[in-house]
Structures are given as structure tokens and as C-alpha cells.
């Protein structure tokens, strides 16, 4: 479930934002709630340390009268919640330009100069974040999330041919019919994330058995549907054949 975190140092303005959000959630009939409303960025950071696998919609003031401003907080948030939805609510529209410098990928900027405008913008952000989260979760049901440098990439498990280790330590290469992508990880970690269609026929490969075209038993070579090949160790050949016959 997608829930909401608010960080606003002005108590009156924070209560205003809370009221608007609660009214909009009730009006839109969405299964969401405010799980944290605070005046300090430290409370947000502490909360995320406890729930770092969750995704949230954040409403952050830019000027928090703290050592950590809203934009710096957003950068910290991105490390634990890379897919989170960040909305800046501020009286200083000119400060929003800093978000490009910090590369925090804000969803929107809401200026506190008009209550009705704030309501409309908050409603739009809640709706958009909710629908995007719902749709992305549908896509992710049969997907694997790959952390490739500064971006998160989702691959449908049915589209993947195989994973293989590379010559670089702890670096894996993923193969599909359309592309290849390298990322840091181990086959042991990947094994826990894939479906039962996958089999590890060799210490260097993890193969989608549904994408195998030919198994050369004499030369211990697996040919995938696109012509690419990988190896099967002799001791795993029987297990691979059994897996493919299911």
C-alpha cells in the first residue's frame, strides 16, 4: 500500500496540509493514509530506516529550519526509497530550481500562496501517485528489479533468457532477446528473486528454461531461442533435462 509522509516545520501549515490530504483521501476513496507527519527531517530519516523497503508519497517543505533542508532530505530519501513520489510544498518557488542540481526527481512543486490551488495540486499528486503505484505494482508482479547505477530497471521474468557472471567481481550480465545489461550482484541473490522456471546449470549461469531451444548433451552447451549459448556442467545436465521436461 502507498502511504504518505509529511515534513513541514511550520505547525499550522503542516496541519493545513494534513487536513487537505485527509479530505482528499476520503473524497477519492483511496486506501492510503498519513503514516508520519513531522516538523523535523531527522524523524523522516529514522522512519525510513525502519521501513526502508516501502514506497511512500512525500510532501516536503523546502526550508525546514534545520541542518537538513527539504531538498537534502529528498536526496537522502532517494537512497532508501528510489521509487518514492516526492512533492515539494514551499513558500519559496525560486528554491525549486535546486532540485535539478540535487537530481532528486520531484513529482511536483506546490507553492503555498493559494489554499484552493494547494488543494487542487495535492489532489492531483495523490491521484497520480496512487495510479502510477498501482500500475507499476501490476507490472512488477512477474518482474525483477535491477539496480543499474543511477537507475532502477524492471525486466519481465518471462522475457529474460539468462543471467551470467562477468570477468568483473560481483558483476552480472542479463540477457534478453533485445538487450544486455550489466549490474552489480551475485547469481545467488538473483536465484532468490526469479520464478521456478529458472535453473542454474553452471556456476556462471542462471537460465530461463522456457527460453531454451536446444540442449547439446555431448558438448554440454545450451542454445537459447535467439541463438545465444551458455554452458551446462556435466553434474547439472540431468537436473536441467528433468527441469525442461516438466
UniProtKB/TrEMBL annotation:
Molecular function as annotated in GO? DNA binding; phosphorelay response regulator activity
Question: What InterPro entries does the entry give?
Answer: CheY-like_superfamily (IPR011006), LytR-like (IPR046947), LytTR_DNA-bd_dom (IPR007492), Sig_transdc_resp-reg_receiver (IPR001789)
PROSITE patterns reported for this sequence: HTH_LYTTR, RESPONSE_REGULATORY
Lineage top rank: taxon: Bacteria
- HTH LytTR-type domain ranges (all copies): 144-246
**Record-listed 4-aspartylphosphate modification sites:** 61
What the entry lists under SUPFAM superfamilies is as follows:
CheY-like (SSF52172)
Keyword line:
Activator, Cytoplasm, Phosphoprotein, Two-component regulatory system
Keyword Phosphoprotein recorded:
yes
**Domain Response regulatory, first and last residues per copy:** 3-127
Tell me, what does this protein do in biology?
Answer: May play the central regulatory role in sporulation. It may be an element of the effector pathway responsible for the activation of sporulation genes in response to nutritional stress. Spo0A may act in concert with spo0H (a sigma factor) to control the expression of some genes that are critical to the sporulation process. Required for high-level post-exponential phase expression of a series of secreted proteins.
Q: What is this protein called?
A: Stage 0 sporulation protein A homolog
Amino acid at each position: 500500500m502507498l502511504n504518505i509522509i509529511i515534513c513541514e516545520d511550520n505547525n499550522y501549515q503542516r496541519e493545513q496540509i494534513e487536513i487537505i490530504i485527509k479530505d482528499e483521501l476520503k473524497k477519492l476513496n483511496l486506501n492510503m493514509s498519513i503514516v508520519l507527519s513531522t516538523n523535523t527531517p531527522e524523524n523522516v530519516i529514522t522512519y525510513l530506516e525502519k521501513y526502508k523497503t516501502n514506497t511512500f508519497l512525500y510532501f516536503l517543505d523546502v526550508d525546514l529550519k534545520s541542518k537538513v533542508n527539504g531538498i537534502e532530505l529528498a536526496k537522502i530519501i532517494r537512497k532508501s526509497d528510489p521509487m518514492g513520489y516526492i512533492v515539494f510544498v514551499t513558500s519559496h518557488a525560486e528554491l525549486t530550481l535546486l532540485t535539478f542540481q540535487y537530481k532528486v526527481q520531484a513529482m511536483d512543486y506546490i507553492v503555498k500562496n493559494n489554499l484552493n490551488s494547494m488543494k487542487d495540486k495535492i489532489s492531483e499528486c495523490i491521484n497520480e501517485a496512487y495510479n502510477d503505484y498501482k500500475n507499476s505494482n501490476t507490472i512488477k508482479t512477474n518482474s525483477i528489479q535491477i539496480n543499474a547505477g543511477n537507475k532502477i530497471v524492471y525486466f519481465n521474468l518471462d522475457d529474460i533468457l539468462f543471467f551470467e557472471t562477468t570477468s568483473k567481481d560481483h558483476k552480472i550480465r542479463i540477457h534478453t532477446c533485445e538487450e544486455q545489461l550489466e549490474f552489480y550482484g551475485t547469481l545467488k541473490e538473483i536465484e532468490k528473486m526469479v520464478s521456478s522456471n529458472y535453473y542454474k546449470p553452471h556456476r556462471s549461469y542462471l537460465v530461463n528454461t522456457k527460453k531454451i531451444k536446444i540442449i547439446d548433451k555431448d558438448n554440454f552447451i545450451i542454445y537459447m531461442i535467439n541463438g545465444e549459448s551458455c554452458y551446462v556442467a556435466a553434474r547439472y545436465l540431468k537436473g536441467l533435462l528433468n527441469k525442461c521436461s516438466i
